[in-house]
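Crash report, auto-generated. Payload:
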Amino acid sequence: MTALLKQHLIDPEICIRCGTCEETCPIDAVTHNDDNYVVDAAICNYCMDCISPCPTGSIDNWRVVRDAYSLEEQFGWEELPEQEDMEDAGAAASIEALDDEIASLLDEAHSGTGGKAVAAASASKPSVNLFSRSKPAVATVQGNFRLTEEAVEHDVRHIILDMGDTVFPVLEGQTIGIIPPGNDAAGKPHQMRLYSISSSRDGERPNTNNLAITVKRELQGVCSNYLCDLERGAKVNIAGPFGATFLMPQNPDANIIMICTGTGSAPFRAFTERRRRAMPSAPGQMDIYFGARRPEELPYFGPLKKVPESLLRQRLVFSRLPDAPKEYVQDRMLNHADELAELLRDGNTHVYICGLRGMETGVDESFAAVCRKAGLDWAALKPGMRDEGRYHVETY
Amino acid sequence: MHDAMNVDYDTIIPNNVGLSDDRRVLKALEQWHPGYIDWWMDMGPEGFQEALVYLRTAVSVDPKGWAKFDYVKMPEYRWGVLLAPQEEGRVVPFGEHKGEPAWQEVPGEHRAMLRRLLVIQGDTEPASVEQQRHLGTTAPSLYDLRNLFQVNVEEGRHLWAMVYLLQKYFGRDGREEAAELLQRRSGSDDKPRMLGAFNEATPDWLSFFMFTFFTDRDGKMQLESLAQSGFDPLSRTCRFMLTEEAHHMFVGETGVGRALQRTCDAMNEAGIEDPNDVEAIRALGVIDLPTIQKKLNMHYTLSLDLFGSEVSTNAANSFNAGLKGRFGETKIDDDHQLTNDTYPVLKCINGGFDYVDEPALSALNMRLRDDYSNDCGKGVGRWNKIIAKTGVDFELKLPHQAFHRAIGEFAQIEASPDGKFLDAAEWEAQRDQWLPSSEDGDYIASLMKPESETGKYANWIAEPKIGIDGKPGDFEYVRIHE
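Recovered output after restart:
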């Protein structure tokens, strides 16, 4: 089978031939004739410099192809060709990343969605793949704080990465790739690891060019140990941003149900910050079902307590409290069955699930139970929500 | 040490030119700033200063950072001074100084000429904001309203760009010119703006779209020529302005295109085949194609006048001096000095039109105008494709260069759009067939009803094919009420 190529194309029906892309392209991959501006697939390296200056949006088009469309073909187009059916790839889906290593990691993480992941209709348009393993962005560690108490065994950290002069635009729900230095035993570079961004698009504090990630130290984990041990001032190579579907809806009317465990809370910290800063009086409801063993192990437990219920209804759920029975997020969902059912009936409601893969089944069963009680059919509702960009799963 | 790529927000004026280390210019700009805000409040978009508008703002002149979108109130837009990055080893690309290192300071002998170029360019920027200030109340959608305001704030920023150069490089004279730029008013009897087209009214949205297509395209050509300048700060300023100007072209081209689309669709729905059946088409509440052609005739010809006289010593001098080049100067294959070259200029000769070879240096305005007409022609071709796709039998055309002109070779004569000489009586008798009559204006005005529901568009215009910043159709581009 020939390898598939994601080809960058310009929509001739939308393009106004202003030439900004050709002017911007640092490696002259864009050219034109009297009719069209086109991208040379043999030259384009997906640096994305041309995307944001384009006034029309015509530049941001992609087709998955076996053989690239030639310049001559593109010069002759009056409209873009349809995406051909590729039976061997969910290839035409939103492009979450351009390198196969990352794309397959994200496909895997989103597999629990149960179908083609679709971004929320009101999500902002993401930039992806601005930086890669071969062309990383260099960030500086601005802070590395332990989120769990010293006494507990889990070491979860909040790491702030300062992007310095580098423009690294991110959206809430996107991830970045961390490129740990060095090689594995076989002499190959260590694998990249993906981390959700836990700060909102305008930085850890408004208008700071930095971002935060939430990292749990894993036994034997090359990347997590590397990150957790970083000192302030250290340099880190990062790739990304990645992800084009697990994105926060920007419609203030959107209700957002967030279900997470552990570091799965990272994107939801970003969602909450975004809404607090950009639309503090949004009518949409935000609920979080957040599970951990004990309060001391729940990342961001302290800061969360300061977030008002009017912004975020918090259902913090613990499975190892000394004097209480084990409780998991799916159990707590059942306590709020009527409220959840009412939200599910609302076409503005979006569900996001993030955390360990093990939680998927239990949460799904709870949604089914909630629906049964309310006379709704979860089996029919879920795919509909997914296709409308209102049901999202990112698990690992 | 400032960073030339990212924008410094430490001073009140966002900039990438190290203003915080340049106290003199910073002070001058800070003193100018309140007057600018007063001007914006008096002459900027009427009735929407409190609205939250989904605007893009540059946070860096790096390609990845110059289009950040968010809601902002227009008076709080971060107008700043942004120059494209300096190119190492850049040389003067044309004229008698060709090959010398590009100037980082104003060459003494060209001071007056350069100042004039800056003032003329600068004067057009606030003028267009003034011309468009009433349009907000009749916007055909929130999407269009947002586009209007984006154009407006960026014209404001272009004024800042010119004012920075005046204040940085021209001392007291520059400060006085900067103050004057805030005092002239489009269409004023006492203190009009400097160029004719910028004193005309923009009475309706079709005019606005035509203006952004034709008149802002003149701006693009002028900026392209100034971007070639041997005076490096001017070149860098204009290069960055051009990326913003492209958005204005977009608003014009797609705005007219959407009006054409809607008219043709409405004709097809109603089964009207004759595009000249104006009465029947107007009964559908859309703008008939012949009237769109008239608006095109009007705005194209007003814009042709902006290029000045076909044969001009001023243009020759500023080229020779290395201050203002040609469109695409560095891509032209010649000596870039034009000492012995000629260029064909269309003239009135013996009751007809003919080309006469003139020294290429003196004919630079003509050449730029030809490049402009060529660029316009391609856009009109794309409009015709929209019409053709609907099956309606009609083609828009650019009128002859001699039609309806007030400046240059054809100012003294009258000609028809297809280039026939006319006497005064013939012109008077047919004028309303070619240019919008007051009745046409009244009809268009009758359609200008605001539509402020998200995702809705006035009946006379089709919705856009894609949203701004990839937003869906029902996105609230402007929050009029807090």
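Post-recovery validation: The longest strand of chain B covers residues 342-349.
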